[in-house]
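Message: I would value a second opinion on how I read folds in token form. Give me a protein, with the fold worked out from its sequence. Write it directly below this note and I will take it from there.
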Amino acid sequence: MSDKKIAVKVDHVSKFFKLPTESTQSLRTAMVNRFKGIKGYREQHVLKDISFEVKEGDFFGIVGRNGSGKSTLLKIISQIYVPEKGSVTVNGKLVSFIELGVGFNPELTGRENVYMNGAMLGFSPKEIDDMYDDIVEFAELTDFMNQKLKNYSSGMQVRLAFSVAIKAQGDILILDEVLAVGDEAFQRKCNDYFMERKKSGKTTILVTHDMSAVKKYCNKAVLIEHGLVKAFGDPSDVANQYSLENTVVQKDSVESEEEETKEEITFVENLKVKLLSKVQITPNDPIEFEISYEVLKDMETYIVFSLTDLDKNIWIYNDNGMDISTKKKGPKVFRYKCSLGHVNDIKLKLVVTILGKDKEMLAFANTENSPIIVINRNDIALDDLSALDSATGIIQRNGSWEVLSR
């Protein structure tokens, strides 16, 4: 792997944009502001000293939250933007697919748009002739290529635009958020294409929010956060870190919700949930956590909890049998241990609630006290799709309680 040539080298790249802070129509005012050091704009630094290398044959993933600088980085690699500092070196013909349908003309036919778009990508008419049949066949639009693009459905336009990009015979393919194009059948075809491309050794750079796609296709990945490289290397590690950071809810909204409910909680205080097992585990590792709270008067209280799939927003494991109960005031501490051996590639949120005798809610864990658990196997091949997929459905309760203070 180390003797492979470098396809794309990003070397200490920085980029900022000038955002106007005031406008003036007066030359005198502009000159006065200039002498005072008032520029009339502020600099928004989108990328800050970004460096990494993509080797020939890599299926390279770039991930990050919206606004992190991913698309700006792709436009610099595609030579649409020029960096303020640093440089990008591209070895080979690059096909960049940053926005669906950019450069398409609705007044031209599908065939004419293929040739025009191919020319914009840097291909000669002869090269487009050689690629044309593959493009049309992949898009499944053989009977429509002589119709004007404005008569295509949106799905047909998407298929054509995507097919031009992926079937163009370039050395390096750049894709920005385009894995969900077309209907289900077309997406399956795209999946097969990406698996073939991965095996063929052609260089691909993929920007996506789909972490399962990163783990499935990529052999390397980078996480961009606030314009900086936050993580680089193994795609599973990068994807898991991205998933963990994305599950954190902003505290401001949480605090406002807590203030609204705080007055109603008068019998139970200081509910805390502590994860004793690791945040990132494999399906074979047990999940163990500790629940503590304080009851302010003699009364019955019960513990119920659920492990909720954050992506699908459904719980897959819970304990609501109210087996653990207390009848006296004072501090309470319990531990729970269970296993989820039949799931993989899943993010779970542990939600704990304290109920009263009539199942009224007395306390619930806030966001800070609701741990996140990531379950993922790293010992399976990326092409073993059945093993990579997460299980669905409800898992039978198999845990046990341990009473530390009752």
